[in-house]
Amino acid sequence: MSAAQLRELFLRDRLREYFLIRLLADGTPVGRLYWRARCFTSDASKIDWELNILLAEPGVRGRGLGSAAQALAVQHLLGRPSTRSVFAYTAVENHAERRALQKAGLHELGPLPHPRYPVSVPDGDWVVYSTRSRTAAD
Ligand SMILES: CC(C)(COP(=O)(O)OP(=O)(O)OC[C@H]1O[C@@H](n2cnc3c(N)ncnc32)[C@H](O)[C@@H]1OP(=O)(O)O)[C@@H](O)C(=O)NCCC(=O)NCCS
Q: Rounded to whole angstroms, what are the CA distances from 66 to 27, 39, 56, 104, 108?
């Protein structure tokens, strides 16, 4: 992305809130997490929060950071009165993220596109996880 596009994405997109993930021991930045407000119903006051995480430093993966960071985000967002759900999607073959999302308290809903989460995704096989269960009424 160009500098202008990155500026727009990180500084001006008011629908997303970005967080830098640091290791507590020495404060080294190792990744980022964001949540993004989505509205999939006719009620504009009800927000579905999309989570997205990247541990950019491969050496810190597999140590519980991804699960813990997403669990904290879920806990925080579920505390907001406007929250309808928290959801995330990932590639079917991304077993680490699929397990991390489960550990963060999300349920697997099935493949994307999904009627409850009409998001556009790049080519490939994607699976969506949500704080809402498969059976929960909309
Ligand atoms: C995906 C990601 C966020 C997971 O975070 P993490 O800190 O590495 O994962 P955790 O240490 O919390 O582990 C999550 C679980 O996945 C399991 N896991 C890790 N790698 C795995 C793999 N290759 N296959 C199967 N399970 C795996 C872990 O064992 C753990 O489960 P357990 O506690 O039951 O043993 C992180 O690896 C990452 O940023 N990867 C690159 C970017 C990415 O894929 N982002 C998500 C894309 S949408």
A: 16, 25, 11, 9, 17
